[in-house]
Amino acid sequence: MTVDNSNVSPTAASDLASLLDQLRGADLTAALDQIDGTDLQRLAQDINTPNELRLLLEASGGDDELIQRFLAKAGADAMLDRVFTLMQTRFITDRLGSDSGTVEWHITTPEGEKVHHLTIGDGRAEGGNGPADRARVTLTMSAPDLLRLCAGTLEAVAAFMNGKIKLSGDMMFGARLPSLFDTSS
């Protein structure tokens, strides 16, 4: 089944869920070819919750290649910037206590490796592009796995044990990271 471009444009859709409903069951590869990259960037910017990110991943059927194609068309930077901005809003301050640290993320994308960092402590999480001045933990993973992790559909410990996530630095701090972010809705 192919999708008529006029039916899938995010600017014509009333919201993200409506657009994803239109894509569900469609030939997503063909749909991605029809949708303008700037529309996909807008779609990425409309993601405000882990549940909305889950909807996007469900539309791909969990296929890493389709997720990578989406990222290539939308621009990996746009999607990663959105994900790291959302992380800052999903930080659960009371779970960290007085501990703090900076996490450096190395994300493999269709455009090459992207590096972001997130400093958590003092009741907030703040991040940016590029390497950290001083990372307590460094995580390395693919962009699809980062999206799954942030959507709450990838179990971090299992992903680490299976080699999908590589961790260097303070292992104890790294092990606490999944519990510090709300991926419930």
Strand content: 15-25%
**Structural category:** alpha+beta
CATH architectural grouping of the largest domain: 2-Layer Sandwich
Count of individual domains: 2
Instruction: Name the poorly predicted regions.
Output: 1-14
Distance between the termini: 31 Å
Mean pLDDT: 86
Main sheet: strands, sense, barrel = 5 strands, mixed
Number of helices: 10
Protein name: SCP2 domain-containing protein
Pfam family, one: SCP2
Write the layout of secondary structure elements.
Layout: H1 5-8, H2 16-23, H3 28-34, H4 37-45, H5 50-59, H6 64-74, H7 76-89, E1 101-109, E2 112-121, E3 124-129, E4 137-142, H8 143-151, H9 156-161, E5 166-169, H10 171-176
Parallel strand pairs: 1-4
Antiparallel strand pairs: 1-2, 2-3, 4-5
Helix pairs in contact: 2-5, 5-8, 6-7
Care to give the gist of this entry?
The chain has 185 residues and is an alpha+beta fold. The protein folds into 2 domains: 71 residues; 95 residues, SCP2 sterol-binding domain (Nonspecific Lipid-transfer Protein, Chain A, 2-Layer Sandwich), CATH 3.30.1050.10. The chain contains 10 helices and 5 strands, in the order H-H-H-H-H-H-H-E-E-E-E-H-H-E-H.
Please give a handful of descriptors for the protein shown.
5 strands, 2 domains, SCP2_sterol-bd_dom_sf, SCP2_sterol-bd_dom, 185 residues, alpha+beta, disordered N terminus, globular, 10 helices, 5-stranded mixed beta sheet, Nonspecific Lipid-transfer Protein, Chain A, SCP2 domain-containing protein
